[in-house]
């Protein structure tokens, strides 16, 4: 049997979705298969990005966990990046990240974490792929461009799930 992971994963959903949308359901199963605990933060009704950051930081601190990974989609990716400056996550896995956008304060701010991977749809109509490419270049992190749109559904979700599994296995094998 493979070594079980001990990391806890905190999922942060996007502005228009909820804590148990399709992506989070799929990725939480993957996390569970690899022995990770997980939590999905409920930000519904919270439109202020900083309030979401504060909620994520408070949740992680209240849980008093030592090893954790932040996973965020769209606005949730922005929240995860911003929270990385107040926390010390082992890794960040970012989906259709809301980066390089004037509407988000400090959306050009680089993550405070050494292990960062991004997944972005080539045809993202909300956050163009060019913005993700520029951000990944500045952050010097892995960027996986997949065939798909902002929601990363269907084949894009299958690819995202495979990338997430590989990311978690690398994190398991990284001290």
What does this structure look like?
The chain is an alpha/beta fold and 175 residues long. It has helices spanning 22-33, 49-63, 75-84, 129-139, 155-172, and strands spanning 8-12, 37-41, 68-73, 91-95, 116-121, 142-146. Helix 3 links the parallel strand 3 and strand 4 (91-95). The model has no long low-confidence stretch (mean pLDDT 94).
How many beta-strand elements? 6
* End-to-end gap: 20 Å
Low-confidence stretches: none
Largest sheet: 6 strands, parallel
Let me know the average pLDDT: 94
Helix-strand topology string? EHEHEHEEHEH
Please bin the fraction of helical residues: 25-40%
Sheet with most strands: strand arrangement:
2-1-3-4-5-6
**Please, how many helices?**
5
What general form does the structure show?
A: globular
Rg from Cα: 15 Å
Strand content: 15-25%
Classify the secondary structure makeup into a structural class: alpha/beta
């Amino acid at each position: 049997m493979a070594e079980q992971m001990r990391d806890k994963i905190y999922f942060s959903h996007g502005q228009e979705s909820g804590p148990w949308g399709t992506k989070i359901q799929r990725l939480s199963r993957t996390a569970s298969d690899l022995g990770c605990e997980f939590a999905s933060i409920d930000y519904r009704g919270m439109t202020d990005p900083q309030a979401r950051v504060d909620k994520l930081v408070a949740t992680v601190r209240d849980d008093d966990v030592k090893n954790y990974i932040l996973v965020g989609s769209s606005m949730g990716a922005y929240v995860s990046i911003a929270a990385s400056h107040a926390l010390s996550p082992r890794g960040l896995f970012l989906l259709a990240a809301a980066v390089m956008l004037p509407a988000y304060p400090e959306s050009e701010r680089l993550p405070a974490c050494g292990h960062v991977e991004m997944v972005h749809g080539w045809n993202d109509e909300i956050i163009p792929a060019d913005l993700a490419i520029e951000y990944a270049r500045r952050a010097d992190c892995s960027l996986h461009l997949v065939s798909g749109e902002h929601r990363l559904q269907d084949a894009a979700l299958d690819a995202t799930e495979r990338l997430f599994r590989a990311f978690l296995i690398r994190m398991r094998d990284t001290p």
